């Protein structure tokens, strides 16, 4: 089945860390760029971080720069988002996206991140 599936969300205290994972299956993940997005109720989904297919280039939204790290392991068909120093503004549903200009554009079902003391 062609899909990406997120995992790793949960409840964490302010200042804590979480690592989100994105498992890709059914397609040639190594040829796809990957992004992590987040969405809160009433707001549009926003790009948090992006990584190219080879991992050679990354992008981060200013709100997470220096705190979040996006990475991938193409041999394992996995993508990751390491989130450190989580803030009250970070809670959201986090989505993984894998896309290629001439092939699939895949979204996962999302994983909830909650930051609370």
What does this protein look like?
The mean pLDDT is 96. A hairpin with a 4-residue loop joins strand 7 (68-73) and strand 8 (78-83). The protein is built from no helices and eleven strands. The termini are far apart. The strands form two sheets. Strands 2, 4, 5, 6, 9, 10 and 11 form a seven-stranded mixed β-sheet that branches. The chain has a four-stranded antiparallel β-sheet with strand order 1-3-8-7, with no helix packed on it. The radius of gyration is 13 Å and the shape is globular. The protein has 117 residues and is mainly β.
Compute the CA-based radius of gyration: 13 Å
Major sheet description: 7 strands, mixed
Got a strand count? 11
User: What string, H for helix and E for strand, traces the elements in order?
Assistant: EEEEEEEEEEE
Structural class category: mainly beta
Short précis:
With 117 residues, this protein is mainly beta. The protein is 0% helix and 51% strand.
SSE diagram, text form:
Blueprint: E1 3-7, E2 10-12, E3 18-25, E4 33-39, E5 46-51, E6 58-60, E7 68-73, E8 78-83, E9 92-99, E10 105-107, E11 111-115
Parallel strand pairs: 2-11
Antiparallel strand pairs: 1-3, 3-8, 4-5, 4-9, 5-6, 7-8, 9-10, 9-11
List keywords for this structure.
four-stranded antiparallel beta sheet, 0% helix, globular, mainly beta, seven-stranded mixed beta sheet, 117 residues
């Amino acid at each position: 089945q062609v899909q990406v599936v997120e995992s790793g969300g949960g409840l964490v205290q302010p200042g804590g860390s979480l690592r989100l994972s994105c498992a890709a299956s059914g397609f040639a993940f190594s040829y796809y760029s990957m992004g992590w997005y987040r969405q809160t109720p009433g707001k549009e989904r926003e790009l948090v971080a992006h990584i190219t297919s080879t991992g050679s280039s990354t992008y981060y939204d200013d709100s997470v720069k220096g705190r979040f790290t996006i990475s991938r392991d193409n041999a394992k068909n996995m993508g990751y988002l390491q989130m450190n120093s989580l803030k009250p503004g970070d809670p959201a549903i986090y989505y993984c996206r894998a896309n290629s200009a001439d092939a699939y554009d895949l979204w996962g079902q999302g994983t909830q991140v909650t930051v609370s003391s």
